[in-house]
Amino acid sequence: MQIAPPLILTHSEMVEVLTTLPEINKILSQVGAKIWPLDLSDTPERIRDLLSQAELNDEDTEALKTYFLLTRDRILESIREAGREPHVDNGGALETHMLPDDSHYPALWSAQARANYKGFDRFHIHRTDDGAGVDVVLQVLSGKGFVMRHLLPDNIVIACRIDCPSPAEGWIVTYSGDRPHVCSLNSADAGTKVLAQIIGPEKWSTEYVG
Q: Is the pTM value of this prediction over 0.85?
């Protein structure tokens, strides 16, 4: 049986499918996004066990967040390596809230079996009422089938499926929240885990654009 590559990028105006990190990052640079490998080989056994579990309680979730949260300096480094400057000087708030439901970030997304995530599969942007955007850094920590999409002018869509190659390998992803995008768990394996850090203004909203 042929094993699918861990990264697969499609572009609505390209026939070929891209599977290597350099060529994928070249396309993602059009929207100020980038992907890096994440080495999980030194992760403690307790944390590895939590990453392999399909469901987590609140204590387990907090343990994963505490272990994997990136520092301000590392987040800013990622933003700049992707060719962007942070929307807020020095990155802004590291703990932020999405209005009106007051969802808190950082947040650990964990795909649940039989859950329907299609409601989140609409293109949207994150920003404040006065137009200030946010910066997003994700760590894909386990699982397969996480999909990131970006909408370009003229309804051109870039879609990248992101799988962890092994329990010892994940990915770091960054993009600008004020560009139309989707982060989808709808086709992800149960137990797929993604740690999201969204920084900038302390409070911001989601605006659907498609």
A: yes
